[in-house]
Amino acid sequence: MLPVINVERVSETQTPPKTLQYRIDGPDDAPVLILGPSLGTTWHMWDRQITDLSRRWRVFRFDLPGHGGAPAHPATSVAELADRLLATLDGLGIQFFGYAGCSIGGAIGVELALRHPHRVASLALVAASPRFGTADEFRQRGVIVRTNGLDPMARSAPEHWFTHGFAAAQPAIVEWAVQMVRTTDPGCYIAACEALAAFDVRGELGHVGVPTLVLVGSEDQVTGPAEARTLVAGIPDARLALVPGASHLAPVEQPGAVTDLLVHHFSTAWQNASDSTTGLTPIPASPITPALSAPVTPIGEIAPASPAQPEAVQQGRPDPYVAGMKVRREVLGDAHVDRETAAADDFTGDFQELITRYAWGEVWTREGLDRRTRSVVTLTALVAGGHLDELAFHTRAALRNGLTPAEIKEVLIHAAVYCGVPAANSAFRVAHAVIQEETTP
C-alpha cells in the first residue's frame, strides 16, 4: 500500500447514491483542488502528490462507487458521476475548484468543464481521452467481469498501468495495484465500463473554456500520446506535457514529474481566478519550471463523422430511427451493426432501415420491459423458430445486457420443454461457442 500522508479528514457517512466517498488534506482556507481516480483505483493513487499539493491547496480526493470500500451504488454514465461529485461538494460548501483527473477521472473533469464551467478554475487531464477505445471494448470487459469476476482485470492491470521496468523493480506497488482492482465491487466496475463505453466528447472539445494541462506518459498504451494530442488540438487553451518513462498511472510511476507539472499548472492558472463565493485569494505563480512540459500548437478540432440519418416521418412524430440505431449499437455492438450496414445495398438497404426503425426504435425502446428481460424473450423466440444465426448474435447481446452464462443456460433448458429438445440442442451448441468466445479473458 502506498503511504497515507497528512490525513486530516475522511468522510464517514454518505447519503447514497447521491454522493461520493471522499477525503480532504490541506488547510481549510486554501483554494480547493480535486483529484479524480482512474477505473479500478482508489484515491490512494494520488498519495505521492499529497505532501506538495496540500501545502498550497485544500486537496479533495474521491473514490468511484464501489471502489476503495465506497458504497456500491453503480453509476452508468460519466454525467452521473459528475453529478454525484457536485452533490458531495455542495454538501461541503465548495463551489469553485481546480480539477485533475486520471482516465475516467479525466472524463469527469471534461464533463464538469463542459456542463458546469462556472465552477471549474482550471483542469488537468491525466491519461485521458475524448473517447476511450470503443464502446464494444468496454462492454466486452463488462461481460468478462460478469462471468469471471474481477480477477482477470486485476491480473492484467500492472501491464496496462506500468512500464515493464517499473513493474519489475516495484513488486510491492504492483501487488497494491492488483489488490485495488480485486477489492472493487464488480457491479460498480461494470457500470463504470458502461459509462466509458458511452463517453464521447470529440465534437465538444472546443467548448472547454478553462486552462487545461493534458498530461500523458510516453509509454502509455491505454490512452497514449495520440489521444492526448487529440485533446490538445480540440481544447482552445490546452498544453501538452509528455512524461518520459511512464505508462497509464503516471502519478504513481513518475510522482515527482507529475507533481511539478500539476503545481506549475494550477499555480499559474489560479493567478487570474478567485472564488467569489468563498473569497479565496489566488495563489502566486510557482517558480517551478517543469522541464517535461511543452506547448503544443492546436492542429484543428477533431470531430466524429456524422452519418446521414433519415428525416422525421409519420405525421410529425420523432423518427424512431435515431433512437433505434442507438439501442441497436448498444445491444448488438458497433462492430456487428457496422458490418450489417456496410453490407447493405440497393436490395437490402431498405430492410436494414426497417429493422432499425421498427424492431429497435419502436419495440426495444419501450419501457415495459428492461433489456435483460427482452433478451430472455428474444432467445426463447429464436430457439422456437430455429433461427440459429440470429441466436448467435443475440447470445452476445444477452451477455451485454447483463445475463450471465448460467442464466442463458437456464433459458435454453426452459425452452427445451416448450420448444423441443432438438431445437434446444442446436441452440446449446451455438450459444456455447459464443459464450466461450465472449467470456474468455
Structure characteristics:
441 residues; alpha/beta; 9-stranded mixed sheet; 18 helices; 9 strands; 50% helix; 10% strand; disordered N terminus
Give an account of the 3D structure.
This protein has 18 helices and nine strands. The protein has 441 residues and is an alpha/beta fold. The protein has a nine-stranded mixed β-sheet, with helices on both faces. Helix 17 (405-419) packs antiparallel against helix 18 (421-439). The protein starts with 8 loop residues before the first strand and ends with a helix.
Summary, kept brief:
The chain has 441 residues and is an alpha/beta fold. It has helices at 47-56, 78-91, 104-115, 135-148, 151-161, 164-169, 171-182, 186-198, 225-234, 250-253, 255-269, 320-332, 334-343, 349-363, 371-385, 388-400, 405-419, 421-439, and strands at residues 9-10, 22-25, 32-36, 58-62, 97-102, 120-126, 212-217, 238-243, 293-294. Helix 4 packs antiparallel against helix 8, helix 12 crosses helix 13 and helix 12 (320-332) packs across helix 14.
Topology record:
Layout: E1 9-10, E2 22-25, E3 32-36, H1 47-56, E4 58-62, H2 78-91, E5 97-102, H3 104-115, E6 120-126, H4 135-148, H5 151-161, H6 164-169, H7 171-182, H8 186-198, E7 212-217, H9 225-234, E8 238-243, H10 250-253, H11 255-269, E9 293-294, H12 320-332, H13 334-343, H14 349-363, H15 371-385, H16 388-400, H17 405-419, H18 421-439
Parallel strand pairs: 3-4, 3-5, 5-6, 6-7, 7-8
Antiparallel strand pairs: 1-2, 2-4, 8-9
Helix pairs in contact: 1-11, 2-3, 4-8, 5-7, 12-13, 12-14, 15-16, 15-17, 16-18, 17-18
